[in-house]
């Protein structure tokens, strides 16, 4: 029975995807391909032929990886008539298809045709086809590929400031980009916590600004710091080498020099750059800092000098000038900034920020380059030629495209690889958020609200890897791989050719190559997904265990033991009628694909009963009332779809137990995350009623009386009731000196348990 079930699943998936692309570990999937019969044998006897000297680099590059993986290299032949040959043919494709290529593999010959970038991508496809094969006999399938990317900006960002990554690791990261045909590396080089690029004219930027006297340890809310000196920087020689390394891989580096905010490390080196001129330390903690570049001439001259050296080192068209998260407090109190506001007839400090960016843009443009900045540069008016990187959702990108400005999409919802990628409770500490692989894969960079003409301004997208919580190279690999591959397919493969299951199957094959390269990639695709369903008619709760059937079969236990391949096979939803602890693992051919996940369900008198709120939760945090009575308490760290939330308002609910019940205890969960403006309720009050109209107050608890700063637990005696009313009083306005000061606090609530 078990075998039959797995067989049917596999057969169905195979039927769905009968195209042979599944057999190839190719990511991103080529846009047009034809499968042919036969194969080509790549061996030390294979020769490589090309005429254009421009392509010599490609040979060196291809040979280096062939040597390390297979132990041999190809020699260049003087003509193309050879028994086993790879022919590279350079064509002038014109600006619109410079990245296009064709790859034809026939039994005795492989031909790759394209412009310089195109031929490089053809070789990347070939390398992916080799996948994890090694030795002197590499079998490649005969096929014909005609391929071209969907977007021109296919980017990955890396923050080397919160944590520093060595030049050799940066090269390894660039190799990952190259493998997935990504063409833009956004290198975030300056921050409050470290200045990482040598500037000859201002040596203190790195001598002082590249080192901090300690770092934040653990969660931000713990406010713990170590006292270890931490830092590092890239010399101009390092940078030249890396720029060259990237160029050989058809990757343009976009350097980011943050201004006017996120500039405390520069100010630590040269205090006169700030409004107050006071001595500062390089920041140790994360967040946003109030000391920013002062809008005076000497700062502009400094920035011009810095940009001169930056533009000499980085030959690409775009220079990223940051522009995000710049508090205006210091400018408000600064005589020089205020005088400038007057002189330039600016309305306020927001217009001063816009003036700042425009002045920098004028300079960068005068050198024949363009600026790109985070979407805050829209505020107070966009600089005339600036491109916008939309990170606070897509709105900034949409507004910029409507104003006919170039845009790179990078919304936090889909493109932040510092966010969790699997159940946060089971993952290493991350900054927050929840962006699993499937979400990245499902990202569509062209917003529906743009007309076809406006959409032309969207150059593409990129993912950002901020490193507050990413400390080691291994962890950086874990956070970016394989999400980088999903993004690459979003950006290269046209939507009509994309398919998530097909991608997952190719990805699983591609993992072999990552393993060969000792990449510490995340295995979230093998995690079993726990989904609770309620059957309202039958008043029953069911647990569905989900995983892609092609990737394996699910086994589970209910007695707390580790699932084995002999443990029960999951075939149909599990009825949750009593408290249950379920452990589950995905197995393929008897082997566990990853470690097990555990979930506990507490079935109680409130489970699956109906709830009504006096005021509905905020539309931003409203996954449905059922999350309050689904038998599962939300796990920490938070994933939003397990919580209901109110901004500024009290929560008031009525729970109908559907019949009169004896009640010993009532428990309701809340969240404390003050950094994110989420406060425990000031007070929680419990009422009961038998008719749902007349309620009697029974008990109240204040925020200090909550258990583990997490739940309000009411112990009752001799209480019988059908209806419960719970009022949780919102904290109201946030006190000054705290994040979100003077704004309304959020109240987050999850499970109710009645016993
Ligand atoms: C916001 S994205 C930031 C960064 C942080 C990041 C953490 C952007 C322009 N600014 O400074 O590192 O969030 O996710």
User: Which ligands appear in the coordinates?
Assistant: ligand TNX
Shape: globular
CATH class of the largest domain: Alpha Beta
Strand content: 25-35%
Q: Treating each run of at least 4 consecutive H or I residues as one helix, how many helices?
A: 18
The termini sit apart by: 40 Å
Please outline the major beta sheet: 8 strands, parallel, barrel
Mean pLDDT: 95
Query: CATH homologous superfamily of the largest domain, by name?
Result: Glycosidases
Helicity, in percent? 10-25%
Q: Which class of secondary structure composition applies to the elements?
A: alpha/beta
What CATH architecture of the largest domain do you see? Answer: Alpha-Beta Barrel
> What's the alpha carbon Rg, rounded to whole Å?
29 Å
Using the coordinates shown, work out and report the CATH topology of the largest domain: TIM Barrel
Number of domains: 4
Low-confidence stretches: 13-18
The gist of it:
25% of the residues lie in helices and 27% in strands. By secondary structure, it is an alpha/beta fold. It has four domains: 1-21 and 520-596, no CATH class; 32-147, 2-Layer Sandwich (Chitobiase, domain 2); 153-493, TIM Barrel (Alpha-Beta Barrel), CATH 3.20.20.80; 610-754, Jelly Rolls.
What can you tell me about this protein's structure?
The protein is of the alpha/beta class and 755 residues long. It has 4 domains: 1-21 and 520-596, no CATH class; 32-147, 2-Layer Sandwich (Chitobiase, domain 2); 153-493, TIM Barrel (Alpha-Beta Barrel); 610-754, Galactose-binding domain-like (Jelly Rolls). Helices cover 25% and strands 27% of the residues. The protein contains 18 helices and 35 strands. Strands 8-9-16-17-18-19-20-21 form an 8-stranded parallel beta barrel, surrounded by 5 helices. A 7-stranded mixed beta sheet has the order 1-7-5-6-4-2-3, with helices on one face. Strands 29, 30, 31, 32, 33, 34 and 35 form a 7-stranded antiparallel beta sheet that branches. A hairpin with a 6-residue loop joins β13 and β14. The longest helix has 18 residues, at 349-366. The radius of gyration is 29 Å and the shape is globular. The chain starts with a helix and ends with a strand. The model is unreliable at 13-18 (pLDDT under 50).
